[in-house]
Design goal:
The protein is an all-alpha fold. It has helices at 2-15, 18-34, 38-41, 43-49, 67-78, 81-94, 98-122, 136-143, 147-180, 184-199, 202-231, 236-245, 262-277, 284-288, 296-325, 340-349, 351-384, 386-404, 415-432, 434-446, 451-454, 458-462; strands at residues 125-126, 132-133. InterPro entries: Na/Ala_symport.
């Protein structure tokens, strides 16, 4: 068994090294070029149609939840423990320059995220309960006409959700025990009940939950990080210099930082960005597919906003808080990379700062579990129908308690391998179907019903 676990670890590390990072980075770059760098060309329009309309009533179209609810559901899954503990790890192993490459992969990844969301809306279906469902399993099956590849994706994600929930639940229990001295069994039961009450109600209840919960948890964390940064504002210019300078040249050891070569800087920056915003993974399209929208491209615009919030805003807030506070150069920093955010907050704000990090971590993880369960049950529904998906929903909810008390640790070793199993079929699909997305994009941006109408040029075009 030990030998099996060893080789699983070796394979996992290899897959999530150059192979998948290259696939996701160059796949995203290819799609960005093919889409005509739309995320830069139409940046003001994208923000006006997403953040600018967050609190306005949606305009026409079919769907189950509002575009904003679909966005917050997707963000609820992407914004997790990695935003708090993963970013400082990237800094310690790749140096401050890793943040530059994190930004690069976020901007490039917008092309892949946009492509998969547009395809998800185009190929979505109504299930037996009248709800819109979609995602890679549907556009692979209907768009590529490759049922076996769709089953590969659906089975991979359905299985991956179990160890993923366990890992998230375990981090909730560990944080609650460390900060509030709550027994893991108690926190496991509490998490199970809270999550169960939300997910049993389906995507409509999840949407209503995330549209209120996600902005609250994001503002709590970002606001506190901003306060930490402002208390160290004199360091901001030098930190910006470090990020851009050492994105292209090695950095020597400084205090608790052991130094980094360029290859490590790029690798950790790309990995942090990919893991965080999930561009190309095929998970977020499952949430976006349920949105009320009059055109697939319009919902695709929200996916660009999603990457911006997750990586450019939240991950950057963590990075700057860690860098300006100087905790990354403190003795022993390399040995406690995952705890640097809490240390930075505590140094600036006392015990309150550390508690806010813990509470944010708890909130982030709960939201991630809620949406993970929805993603998993949609795969079960695709494979074996609605009744089977309801059965899997209860399995997922039960796995919260198992993960909280530390059970089934062996299955955690499979987490990255099952994640790789969904990336490969999804990236194959979005690359092969990208021409359809180009057609939809061109249709949207040249039509008097959509883009031209939005910017007030429909009358001019029709005359």
């Amino acid at each position: 068994m030990d030998m099996l676990m060893h080789w699983i670890g070796v394979i996992s590390d290899w897959l999530w090294g150059p192979p998948l990072i290259i696939l996701l980075v160059f796949g995203g770059l290819y799609l960005t070029v093919k889409l005509g760098f739309f995320q830069f060309k139409y940046v003001s329009y994208i923000f006006s149609q997403t953040f600018g309309k967050m609190f306005k009533k949606h305009e026409g179209g079919e769907g189950t939840v509002s575009p904003f609810q679909a966005l917050t559901a997707a963000i609820a899954c992407t914004v997790g423990a990695g935003n708090i503990v993963g970013v400082p790890a990237a800094i310690m192993f790749g140096g401050p320059g890793a943040i530059f490459w994190m930004w690069v992969i976020a901007l490039v990844g917008m092309g892949a995220k946009f492509t998969e969301v547009v395809l998800a809306v185009k190929y979505r279906e109504k299930n037996e309960e009248g709800e819109f469902v979609g995602g890679p399993q549907y556009y692979i099956n209907k768009g590529l006409n490759k049922r076996w590849l769709a089953v590969w994706f659906a089975l991979g994600l359905m299985i991956e959700v179990i160890p993923s929930i366990m890992v998230q639940a375990n981090s909730v229990a560990a944080s609650a025990a460390a900060t509030f001295n709550i027994n893991p069994s108690v926190s496991g039961i509490l998490a199970l009940v809270v999550v169960g009450l939300i997910v049993i109600g389906g995507i409509k209840r999840i949407g209503k939950f995330t549209e209120k919960y996600v902005p609250l948890m994001a503002f709590l964390y970002i606001g506190t990080a901003f306060l930490v940064i402002m208390l160290n504002f004199r360091q901001i210019p030098s930190v910006i210099g470090l990020i851009f300078t050492h994105a292209f040249r090695p950095m020597a050891p400084v205090g608790g930082f052991a130094g980094a070569v360029i290859a490590s800087t790029i690798r950790w920056g790309f990995a942090r960005g990919v893991y965080s915003n999930e561009s190309g993974l095929g998970t977020a399209p499952i949430a976006h597919a349920s949105a009320i929208t009059d055109h697939p491209v319009r919902q695709g615009l929200w996916s660009v906003a999603e990457v911006f919030v997750d990586t450019i805003v939240i991950c950057s807030a963590t990075a700057f808080a860690v860098l300006v506070s100087g905790v990354w150069t403190s003795p022993g920093a390399m040995d406690n990379a995952s705890g640097l955010t809490a240390i930075a907050f505590s140094n600036a704000l006392g015990n309150v700062g550390g508690m806010i990090v813990t509470i944010s971590l708890l909130l982030f993880v709960i939201s991630t579990i809620v949406v993970l369960i929805y993603y998993g049950e949609k795969q079960a529904e695709f494979l074996l129908g609605l009744k089977f998906s309801r059965f899997m929903k209860y399995i997922y909810v039960a796995s919260i308690f198992i993960g909280a008390i530390g059970g089934a640790k062996i299955i955690w070793q499979f987490l990255d391998i099952t994640l790789a199993a969904i990336v490969i079929p999804n990236m194959i699909a979005i690359l092969l179907l990208s021409s359809e997305v180009i057609e939809l994009k061109n249709e949207f941006f040249t039509s008097t019903k959509y883009y031209l109408k939005d910017i007030g040029k429909s009358a001019e075009r029709s005359s």
